[in-house]
What we know:
two-stranded parallel sheet, 31% helix
Amino acid sequence: MTIAFPELETLTFEEAEPGIGILRIDRPDRMNSQTVAMFHEFLAAGRALRDSGLRALIVTGSGERAFCAGFDLDEIGVITEMGVREFLRFQETATGGIQAIRHLPFPVIAAVHGPATGGGMALALACDIRLAAPTLKMSAAFVKVGLSFGELG
């Protein structure tokens, strides 16, 4: 099966076997943390996969350290400099990206290892099935300081 998949920087896709795809968060040096660009890529990946004919998709993180450590705090400046309208558009993009994966018409399985925090936890929860390694640590740490944990819809 040939899937017209977009070129991505923070995610990779491979077909493990016919009908089974693997979507990897590919930032192991940053514990697969999310970026503004990554949310756009989740949306593009979801659109490409929607009518692909896959029977199942596995979502996981690259490397051994983490599934997804949430939003990359090195990019927090990008968010803090946004005006209200720009931030709302960003939030719609982030939510739309995760929802594009959530609403795929076949089972989506999160293979979760290491930290799955904030938006990483939201991504794991958006999947239909979660398979957890003994190293899994889910966290919504920002809730402790009165902020959203990045539930992303």
